[in-house]
Amino acid sequence: MDNEPTLGFLLHDVARLLRKRFEQRAKESGLTRTQWQTLAYLSRNEGIQQGCLADMLEVEPITLARVVDKLEQRGLIERRAHPTDRRVWLLYLREGARPLIEQMHVVGDATRHDALEGLSAEKRRSLVEALSMMKSNLVAACAQTNDEEALNG
Predict the structure, then answer these.
(1) pLDDT-based confidence at 124, cuts 50/70/90?
(2) pTM for this entry
(3) Where is the HTH marR-type domain positioned along the sequence (predicted)?
(4) Which fold has domain 22-117?
(5) Domain regions of the chain by residue span
(6) At 145, phi and psi to the nearest 5?
(7) Looking at 34-98, which runs of residues are DSSP E strands?
(8) DSSP state, 129?
């Protein structure tokens, strides 16, 4: 049996260790990883519907509702009613979240530095290009599979 790690296992391990290192550095904030992720996605998608954000985070809507409740209690985000659909909540950052977002960027930069130590600028660019290509390939393959299922379903 080959002892070389497979690409899938290696990518999974690297992603897990990146999250772990980020959490170690962000520990003093008092936020969970899910809360950090929610703030990060919301900072790029303010005004998003709560259900759409749950889809982006790949969590159940009820799970995100609990996270949003806690972040709202801390004064970091706010829910606003949708202008035409009273069943829908739109999410926005509050000013108290802005310093945490900046802190998150600093922690993220330090974590990336830890991960990329020893790689030249050229190898870093190549790594990002390769991962971006892999992502594009997989997005296209998943879309093709969904299209085939729709035609055959």
Answers:
(1) very high
(2) 0.76
(3) 4-136
(4) Arc Repressor Mutant, subunit A (1.10.10)
(5) 22-117, 118-153
(6) -65, -40
(7) 48-49, 77-81, 89-93
(8) H
